[in-house]
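In the present case, backbone shapes were mapped to integers, as reproduced here:
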Amino acid sequence: MKRILVTGGCGFIGRHVVQELVEHGYAVCILDALLEQVHGSEAISLPAGADLIKGDVRDRDVVAEALQGVDATIHLAAEVGVGQSMYEIARYVGANDLGTATLLEALIKHPVERIVVASSMSVYGEGLYATPGGRRVDNARRQASDVKSGQWNPL
């Protein structure tokens, strides 16, 4: 049985990925910081066959522990929230960029067969937009003045 590490495996996308992996016979190790902003104070429910290591992907020791006996890695751990990334820059860069770098460095000592790295909507935007009348807008662009005033969605 293959063992897969899913960083950020308790997040919105991660939960679904972990469930699919378990349903397809994989053993899953989840590395997640369980940030209150994302997970609230509710208890985390894991599918049978998934183990959880609570820790930060920037912590070299925790990442090395999580990689023990792993055949592949799906890297989903990231800070989210396009708006907050504009004023919590150090936190976002630390978690997203340094976290990825820490994982990649750890993989030098603990190589795996495959790594899957997902990006976020911060790179490609939130998706399609429509006018109040329902007309689809494929080329919506944010105006700098709107973003500066806290209006993140295109008008």
In short: The chain has a mean pLDDT of 86.
